[in-house]
Amino acid sequence: MKRVFLIVLDSFGIGQMPDSAAFGDVGVNTLAACATSDKLHIPTMIAAGLGNIDGVSCLPKSDAQGAYARLQESSMGKDTTIGHWEIAGIVSENPLPTYPNGFPDEILKPFMEQTGRGVLANAPWSGTEVINEYGEQHMKTGDLIVYTSADSVFQIAAHEDVVPPEKLYEYCRIARALLQGKHGVGRVIARPFVGQPGAFKRTANRHDFSLEPPGKTLLDAVKDAGKASIGVGKIHDIFAGQGLTEYVYNQSNANGMEHTDRYAAMDWEGLCFVNLVDFDMQFGHRRDIDGYAGALTEFDHWLSAFLPKLGEEDVVMITADHGCDPAYTATTDHTREYVPLLILGNQVRPVNLGTRTSFADIAATIAELLNVQLDTPGKSFAGEIL
Hints:
Elements: E1 3-9, H1 30-35, H2 43-48, E2 67-71, H3 80-87, H4 105-115, E3 119-124, H5 127-141, E4 144-148, E5 153-159, H6 165-178, E6 187-194, E7 201-202, E8 207-210, H7 218-224, E9 228-232, H8 235-238, E10 246-248, H9 253-264, E11 270-276, H10 278-284, H11 289-306, E12 314-319, E13 339-344, E14 351-356, H12 360-369, H13 382-385
């Protein structure tokens, strides 16, 4: 194969895994929640075989036009970083650290000393709720809103008129340097917002500062082979820039799809790794079922126009990194779920790949399709789909 487009619909889970309860998630199913909405219209993905995947009962089955599978996460987590690392070939046997009681003084004290600012909140919070609660106090004092979630994240929220985004990124780099070793959280996240008390709104200037992957990933393998390794959206941040030959950020899902169209029109050989984060950030965490369903509908419409643009030696894979069930009200965090895999292309034959035991099977398969060397516990299914 010449080119692989690997598209992650961030948080598009398809049902609880056997160990979901151990992660605090019972009865979760992101797809099933969206299927209750009249905003969901995804004929292209249904035709590709989404409804045929093991365990999916909320969609009609079809004469599948592509290969399809249900993927189980073998890493011990349900966050973006671990999910993407596994997709790229690295299984994380130990969970990244989380802070249900907030961050300890051994982190916060040097952080405040080096930034010259105080800290507000320091607890697990919903991102929108924490700025509503502390935003006015932050604007009066200049103290930073520091919070976490059930995931391994250190998040810093600040009003753009009080702390310009570039200064906020500087503070995040300070935190990233402090959060290593036993405190090596998956991501430090800048969360800029604007507006006035009672009407705060987060902006598109979010930026993630990720822990570096602990080993060689699919991106490194593609780059080392002299091929293009392109990141679209959060990919650069998730992999701390490692293994990419070029990258571009997204302002929205629609913008990410535009970038993908642009790369499809170019002549290159290798991998285009795309993350569309609005599913998670705008709708999953906000428990907005209709919004999530509408975003899937928007993607499906785009996909129907994108597929004819694929060349004879192109493959597109559509998957996810975890769940974020918009109907699950026990928390507003990610949910531990199986994820779908749809594979389409002119040389891809329709086949049910069953339930796979690791997201890393994607990395092993792409490495074989692109004829690059990668050491991964994943098992390639390239021979089954071509």
